Amino acid sequence: MDRHQRRRELLRFLSQHGEASVDQLTLWLKTSPATVRRDINWLADGNQLVRMRSGAKHSGPKIGGFSSSHGEAEHGIEACAGAERAIARHAASMCTDGESIIIGGGTTTCRMAEFLTRNRLKILTNSFLLAQHLVQNSENEIFVPGGEIDRERSLILSPFEDDFTAQHHASKMFVSACAVSTFNFWLSCPVMIQAETRLLGRAEELVVMARSEIFTSNAGPMRCRLPQVNCLITDTGVSERNVRMLEQEGIRVVTVEPEKNFVHH
Hints:
- This protein folds into two domains: 3-58, Arc Repressor Mutant, subunit A (Orthogonal Bundle), CATH 1.10.10; 76-256, Translation initiation factor eif-2b, domain 2 (Rossmann fold), CATH 3.40.50.10470.
- It has 265 residues and is of the alpha/beta class.
- The protein is globular.
- Strand 14, helix 8 and strand 15 form a beta-alpha-beta unit.
- The chain contains eight helices and 15 strands.
- The chain has helices at residues 3-17, 22-29, 33-45, 72-93, 107-110, 128-137, 190-197, 240-248, and strands at residues 19-21, 49-51, 55-58, 100-103, 122-125, 141-143, 148-150, 155-157, 170-176, 179-181, 184-187, 203-209, 224-225, 231-235, 252-256.
- The strands form four sheets. The protein has a seven-stranded parallel sheet with strand order 6-5-4-9-12-14-15, with helices on both faces. A three-stranded antiparallel sheet has the order 1-3-2. Strands 10-11-13 form a three-stranded antiparallel sheet, with no helix packed on it.
């Protein structure tokens, strides 16, 4: 997500909820607090929002939705968040105390943090935000690769081919996909591909977390196909045709009902 897309998403979030803190926007946009504050200042200078001490407020009346050629008019920000939260809740429920897991970067996987605070797991993640949240709010053992933090996506990028992740083994790896096409699951930007591919293959089971609206017949350019997927967690908006197609390929499909009327944290 480039800065123009991120700022549009920030404004859409405010149009739905009226106002939000920097922490809320950081989790929603999957970026750093510093980036959120820069975006708020830039948008406030253009009179597109009202800057607040702890965050920002929508400059106009709160609205119930927005239009888009990609189906966002039907789902809206609230529905997308509700689907992601339900998917993350189910993913967290698949984990057992004492288990070793890997969690990749992405908006949906980052939401798992809320539901893992009472667990005692060994978690390897390249998501700086998820690691930070769990270190501060749980007794999980948190492992991160060594390297540079990409501020835009809050990902830890390791330049070392022989770091400890090469020897790490886990029972499950959870990944956010940007697109699901016929039999294929895809990652999008080169930065995400660099961060995730180093961890793929380190777990016995690969679990993909994806909202139903990202199912497509064309994954587009500049995307990386994921290897064999064992399980897909998606929301109930997925078509029966797509579920049958994936199940015929031996992929376990779990559908969850999007959550409604929840309070963002």
